[in-house]
Amino acid sequence: MLNISLNTFINLAIMIFTGMALGRLVKLIKLPNVTGYLLAGLLLGPSVLGILNEEFLASASIISEMALGFIAFSIGNEFKITYFKRVGATPIVIATLESLFAVVFVAGALILAGFGASFSLVLGSIAAATAPAATIMVIKQYKARGPVTETLLSVVAIDDATALIMFSIAVAIATALSGGNVSASQLILKPAIEIGGALIAGAVLGLIFLLPLKTFKKDGNRLSLTVAFIFMGLGLSKLCGFSSLLLCMAMGAIIANLTPDVNHLMKLSDKITPPIFMLFFVASGAELKLSVLPAVGLCGVIYIVVRVIGKMFGASLGATICKADKNIRKYLGPALVPQAGVAIGLSLTASAVVPQYATEIRTVILCGTLIYELVGPAIAKASLKKAGEIKKGA
Predict the structure, then answer these.
(1) CA 89, 69, 258: angle at the middle one, nearest 5?
(2) Which of 19, 271, 362, 380 has the fewest CB neighbours in a 10 Å radius?
(3) Is residue 354 classed as helix, strand or coil in its secondary structure?
(4) In tens digits, what is the pLDDT along the chain, a chain of 394 residues?
């Protein structure tokens, strides 16, 4: 037992040291820190040095869950009523259309290339998912501010809900095309419970959070409360089958709108999250598999390229319909490139719908994750910089 614990702590230390070193190294070539963390994980993981093996990475999944909980909570703090009064339904329209067109473009391109309709729909439906973590880290590192950043934070949060809805509908249609029975629960009830339950539970937790917040005024106590409620949210989501991202986001949104202390709470949580985020991205990098690249084929190329086109087209169209700022129309779409955990989770569910294509779907999504996660942060940085929302010397 002692050896296992010792090795775990040594691995965590190596992850932080290597993440810091690679994070500093990539800054020399003007890349975001998160790219360095992912490369550090890739170097340490099974694909290269093998210092972090599959068994350790499985046991370290709690780090990823913690990091995503804090990230979702911080996104929720951007959902102020005053913000939506100012921008209206713009983020909702953009999130819906960028998700929809990613699905339609990928599925359509695959069908035109000769792939089966059921397979194309299921794989295409996963294209809607976006990973907020890498984008948020770029925003935090460069202290990006402006309409594009503001809208981006809202869109990546709403994207989790739109992706689940698109996936559920596409899977139901694919099941019908394959001759299976499509139940109401498959089409409506399951995503409604996953999304609605998360939002309600998060809102309730946020309201409960406000009660001890009035009593505990010291920074240490307030930080402890924040951590405890995020952990509670993560635990409830796992217990009830809710989306953990949406639950923690809803909790953050309630707190943002009902207490003036929200900025102070965020500053407190920012003091403890840097090593958690670093470990999360190093672990994510370690899970990327170079071995999937040769097996990706035409299907993978279509998915990787056309998904980005769909996201950019949908985001631009949504911004145009809502008469949003011209920078939002031009630069929001490219910042939606990253894709990771949610997509991998959906690929596992998809494998049960079209089991004959399970290996191919899994390979394409893993390959897409590898490429999107490595290039996505740099694209997000470049987009925000072109939009003028990253100040010189940040």
Answers:
(1) 55
(2) 271
(3) coil
(4) 334 445 888 999 999 999 999 989 988 888 888 888 888 988 998 888 888 888 888 888 888 888 888 888 888 887 788 877 777 788 889 988 998 999 999 999 999 988 888 888 888 888 888 877 778 888 888 888 888 888 888 888 787 778 877 787 777 777 777 665 555 455 566 777 777 888 899 999 999 999 998 888 898 899 999 999 999 999 998 888 887 888 888 999 899 888 888 888 888 888 888 899 899 888 888 877 777 667 667 888 898 899 999 999 999 999 999 888 888 888 888 888 887 767 776 776 776 667 777 777 877 887 887 788 888 888 888 888 888 888 765 5
Cβ contact 315:102 at 8 Å: no
Q: Are 39 and 121 in contact (CB under 8 A)?
A: no
What is the Cα–Cα distance from 144 to 288, expressed in whole angstroms?
A: 28
Which DSSP state fits 294?
G
- Tell if the pTM clears 0.85, that is, is over it: no
Tell me the C-alpha distance between 203 and 233, whole Å.
Answer: 10
DSSP string, 53-78: -HHHHHHTHHHHHHHHHHHHHHHHTT
Separation between Cα atoms, residue 23 and residue 344, nearest integer Å? 25
* Largest Cα–Cα separation, the chain: 64
Number of Cβ atoms within 10 Å of the Cβ of 112: 10
**CA gap 340, 126 in Å, rounded:** 11
Tokens coding 218:
């010291």
Rounded Cα distance, 252 and 164, in Å:
21
Of 70, 73, 22, 28, the residue nearest 48 (C-alpha):
22
Specify the residue for token string 């992912």. Answer: 38
The answer to whether 370 touches 337, Cβ cutoff 8 Å, is: no
**Residue 206 CB partners (closer than 8 Å, separation 6+):** 250, 251, 252, 253, 254, 255, 258
d(CA 146, CA 364): 35
